[in-house]
Design a protein that fits this description.
It is built from 4 helices and 2 strands, in the order αβαβαα. It is elongated. The relative contact order is 0.19. The protein is of the alpha+beta class. The longest helix is centred in the C-terminal third of the chain and has 8 residues, at 46-53. It has helices at 2-7, 22-27, 46-53, 57-63; strands at residues 12-16, 37-42.
């Protein structure tokens, strides 16, 4: 995945929650991740999602922060 992003000169920004940063960790296992990984956030609490990512609190209250799957 990382090689494909770098080859196409694409970048990636992530916001993880339940995974606790797992996807970011996997992507950065190989050297050179800074060529495609722009930034990553682990925002576990609803407050962090609102404060750091700008997710409206009303949206979280209405739909929840975790998918049903």
């Amino acid at each position: 995945m990382g090689a494909l992003l770098a080859h196409r000169r694409l970048t990636l920004a992530l916001a993880e929650s339940c995974t606790g940063g797992l996807l970011t960790a996997r992507l950065t296992e190989a050297a050179g991740a800074s060529a495609f990984l722009e930034r990553a956030f682990v925002t576990y609490s609803n407050r962090a999602k609102t404060e750091e990512l700008g997710v409206p609190a009303e949206l979280i209250e209405r739909h929840g922060a975790v998918s049903r799957r």
